[in-house]
Design a protein that fits this description.
The structure is a single chain. This protein has 6 helices and 15 strands. By secondary structure, it is of the alpha+beta class. It has one domain: Roll (2,3-Dihydroxybiphenyl 1,2-Dioxygenase, domain 1). Strand 14 and strand 15 form a beta hairpin. It is globular, with a radius of gyration of 17 Å.
Length: 252
């Protein structure tokens, strides 16, 4: 079973998003540094341990090297000329080694799995395994897969005790949908097949149903093959906002 783990939102300075999101009523905290990639982040956690990662660059050389790795979120950002905004999504799994073998056997190029870590502001270290995969020339990047060092309940308790997870002033928020513009709806069908997700479809839209979030694919040839918007439910007031080229819709 695969769940939405997080949405990657590239920004210029992740630390600025802490105040900006908290002013909106969305609890956001500094995350830490990825010393191996030259990036750092701030984090907004929601229901079911899904979160938005606001990520930026602190070391140009390290980032350029990481962007040379195929199918990575860093390569995606580089290929899109470092345009800030919603970049990629990650799915959480409990069997990452088996996932990698299965996808390789299915003919995909798999980059990983490998173990990574991040140093939090309090000095503690959080670790995970991760891999990216895909096909040369693909129109839309697949989600990358992540398996955390600890189980969900242990992570929830740790993140709550540290203050990373806390109540949002805006309400009990959940990432309800991630909406994609695509040139070809067959892309959505491939995602559903790869991850064994259920689908609901029309001529212009396909909904992929996952255990904790839905992915909506809309046929759009003008701005294709990118994340259009993240929809967050449970808000005490409804509004749309654009933050560094990323569109968020808050609904009740």
């Amino acid at each position: 079973m695969y769940k939405l783990d997080h949405i990657v939102h590239f920004v210029t300075r992740p630390e600025n998003l802490v105040d900006q999101m908290n002013e909106l009523g969305v609890h956001t905290v500094p995350g830490g540094r990825h010393e191996m990639w030259g990036t750092y982040n701030s984090l907004s956690y929601f229901h079911n341990l899904s979160y938005i990662e606001f990520i930026g660059i602190f070391d140009e050389e390290l980032f350029r090297q990481s962007a040379k790795e195929p199918f990575t979120l860093h390569e995606t950002y580089e290929n899109r000329l470092r345009k800030n905004g919603l970049n990629r999504i990650a799915l959480r799994t409990n069997h990452i080694e088996e996932d990698a073998k299965r996808l390789k056997a299915a003919g995909y190029f798999v980059n990983g799995p490998a173990t990574f870590s991040r140093k939090r502001p309090d000095g503690s270290i959080v670790s995970w395994k991760l891999f990216h995969f895909g096909n040369i020339g693909q129109e839309l990047e697949f989600p990358f897969l992540i398996e955390w060092e600890n189980d969900d309940q242990t992570r929830f308790d740790e993140l709550t005790n540290s203050g990373t997870i806390s109540e949002h002033v805006l309400g009990k928020l959940t990432i309800k949908e991630v909406i994609f513009n695509v040139s070809n709806l067959e892309l959505a069908k491939e995602w559903a097949q790869v991850f064994d997700f259920k689908v609901e479809s029309t001529n212009t839209k396909i909904k992929i149903i996952t255990p904790n979030c839905n992915f909506i694919f809309i046929a759009n040839v003008d701005e294709p093959n990118q994340i259009k918007e993240a929809v967050i439910s449970g808000a005490s007031k409804e509004f749309n906002i654009e933050i560094e080229n990323a569109k968020y819709k808050f609904i009740s």
